[in-house]
Amino acid sequence: MIPNFFISEPYLKLTLAECYEDVNWIWIQERQSDMALFPPLPVILGLAINAKHMKVWSDFENSKVPIPCKFKFLDYEYIYNPKHFNDLSGGKWEVYRKNIRKWLISNTSWSYRESFQWKEVSTLLADWFERRKSTIEEAGMIATYGAYGDEIEGIHRKFLYDGYGKLAAINIWDENWYYINYRYVLTVADQPHVDEFARYCFYTDREIQSKGKLVNDGGSLGNEGLERFKDKLNPVKKRKMYSYEP
User: Fold this and answer.
1) Contact, 213 vs 206, CB < 8 A?
2) In 3-state terms, what secondary structure has residue 7?
3) 66 Cβ contact list (under 8 Å, min separation 6)
4) Can you say whether the dihedral through the CA atoms of 184, 187, 191, 194 is positive or negative?
5) Are 15 and 144 within 8 A, CB to CB?
6) How far is 169 from 166, CA to CA, in rounded Å?
7) Which pTM was predicted?
8) I need a labelling partner for 77 at 20 to 30 A (CA). Which of 131, 163, 185, 229 fits?
9) Cα angle vertex 41, ends 38, 42, to 5°?
10) d(C-alpha 10, C-alpha 30), whole Å
11) How far is Cα 3 from Cα 179, in angstroms, rounded to an integer?
12) Under DSSP, is residue 216 helix (H, G, I), strand (E, B) or coil?
């Protein structure tokens, strides 16, 4: 099974997901919900039995549904190879490369590190949420990852400081046995192209590259601008994710 973007221990714990089992099937769902988060798995792998009739919020890349279902597009999954960000030459990287340089022109003394000041983090988070309050999804999850990531096992954060020593961005990720999940990049409002440079820091980070894993960067949440941006980062795979019900 190839896990999707929502598979990681800290993410599932924070959703308050619970595991259920009957005679033939094991599945995960949120409390007081009639929908499985992911396709149910047979208790005995390979056992040929009728599929469990449940609504499923998000499929897996290689999951097969043996019964007729109604499918609904959920989002994309963008998969990237961190090694590809080591060489940004060529036309396919031209726009991204130029935007990184634009940020660097004003921030020659930038730094990227694990240390931070809590006041700076809380200020950036408050501003980031204020700018997106009408469209944001999973606000509680983002706040927990951003504010308390160092207190929860499995969540990782690093902090980008600009050329004046000001916190400019926070990169946040976790992982599973197959992918590194790039959860969030939270940035200040007054620095054009800081998002591009923060992503560059993430993908070229020795800690990320040493894992030998591809990165699952999630989807676009219906945002056409974000979809175009992620397309230009040259993913190795762009997969459509679906919800379905019998």
Assistant:
1) no
2) coil
3) 50, 51
4) negative
5) no
6) 9
7) 0.92
8) 131
9) 160
10) 15
11) 8
12) strand
Domain spans in the chain, listed from the N-terminal domain onward: 9-75, 77-240
Two structure tokens written together for 117: 């000041």
3-state helix, strand, coil in the chain (%, to 5): 30, 25, 40
> What class, spelled out in words, does domain 77-240 have in CATH?
alpha beta
Alpha helices in 158-240 (DSSP H): 194-204, 206-209, 224-231
Question: 160 is written with which tokens?
Answer: 């980008």
Structure tokens at 167: 């916190």
Measured distance CA(206)–CA(82) in Å, rounded: 10
How do strand 35-36 and strand 55-56 relate by DSSP bridges?
A: parallel
**Residues facing 35 on adjacent strands:** 55
Per-residue pLDDT of the chain (246 residues; tens, 9 = 90+): 899 999 999 999 998 889 998 888 889 998 778 889 998 888 876 655 556 678 999 999 987 776 788 999 999 999 999 999 999 999 999 999 999 999 999 999 999 999 888 999 999 999 999 998 877 888 899 999 999 888 899 999 999 999 999 999 999 999 999 999 999 999 999 999 999 999 999 999 999 999 999 999 999 988 899 999 999 999 999 999 999 988
- Chain position carrying tokens 């699952």: 216
d(CA 177, CA 7): 9
